[in-house]
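Run: sequence + pimelic acid -> complex structure.
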Amino acid sequence: MDEMYSVKMRANQICGGKDVHISGAERIIGKGDIDTCCGMLLKRAVYHSKGEPDFINIKVEKIDEKDIEYIDALPVTTYEVSTADEGLLKLEELMREAGIAKSSEIAGMMKLTYGMRGAMLVDIRTLDRLEPDRERGVRVTYMDGIAGAAGVAGMKGNETGKNHFREALVLATKVAACPNIVGELCISDDPDYVTGYFASRNTGYCRITRLKEPGDSCGGRIFLYDGERSDVGECIRFLEKQKVLVRMDSFGQDKEVF
Ligand code: PML
Ligand code: MG
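>> structure
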């Protein structure tokens, strides 16, 4: 096997003296793909719909193949809705299906995720926030999709390699495999991308075609935690440090379209 590398990109803008997140992305690749990968991630940072970055950081790190966990992608279902309000009701319904009682309070917390680099981590029983740094949140890293991804309809990236769906499915699959995580809510922070999702081991990856209005750059992620406080550290370690490759060829096409 080719030597493996993690490549991460992060782009920021300085706005009124504050560091604002513009774009972030990552891959796990073989040595021979490092230059192409860096080029694509750079292009993606420079031409982002959220604005022109002042800083772009690319980190290339050699990783040990033995440390990688392989996971099958979650099954995908798409729910067609015509308005953001309808989409938000669907989001709450899916949370309840996954056994989460305080679904409307949790959906209401989504507006607090604006501007965070990572996700909010919320205890589903007390609604306490568990991230050690609330401004940053918990950032899921060291993941990528493998095998068949490029060949599956709708899974190719644009010219900068960005494919919201593919990347979100990789991230959601890793998050759903994390100990004590029982669900994830996501609304894109990209102003022109209105599809979001709810994902969990119980429901699979549930796409909802509208969760906000076009032009709105609000968005973020909430991970739902159900467990002992003493296990939060291990949960965050898995999300931030465990290397995961997601097998994309097992997910096939959407199960059903509603
Ligand atoms: C993001 O912008 O990173 C979130 C993308 C959500 C993708 C939802 C989908 O198309 O399935
Ligand atoms: Mg984004």
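>> summary
Residues 149-155, 252-258 have pLDDT under 50 and may be disordered. The longest strand covers residues 18-30.
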